[in-house]
Amino acid sequence: MNIPTFIAFEVTDVETGYPYAIAWSLPDGQYKTVLVRPEEDWLIDFEMGQYSPDAPPLQDLLDKGESVKDILKEWQHDFERGELYCQDPILAQYCLDLMFNVLDKECEYEVVSEYDCYDKIDSFDIDDQRRWIMDTEGLNATQCEDMVRAMIYVYSRMEDGEL
């Protein structure tokens, strides 16, 4: 089975924040997740008090996070098809544009709604399957890693004819 590239972001603030965690799938069904070291000009969120309570402490991101440059370099190897499927295309495009702006480049990936992976399945059925998988697997809908895991599970069930 060849899994599409699913991606999910966790951000400091939905409207004006930056990504602090990212998860994405690989064609073999595995996934990667990474903390993002914030860029200097992103840190205004902390000064303005707009910081998600779910985010790790700033010092952890600075110490353990990967640089945007390194993440984008890794994606060149991981994103073979150029299409990224996600639950929230607007948020994903915002995060990708923010990250590519660090290198003064345009985003080179097409952001597509997860629902476009499923030709013959109603979006409400997809949402029901995602909720069921989240519940039965003990996944958290606010964590990017769990969001990607759920998208992989739903896609696998569809490919196996279980949906």
From TrEMBL:
Source species, domain of life: Bacteria
Protein name, as recorded: Uncharacterized protein
The organism of origin for this protein: Reinekea forsetii
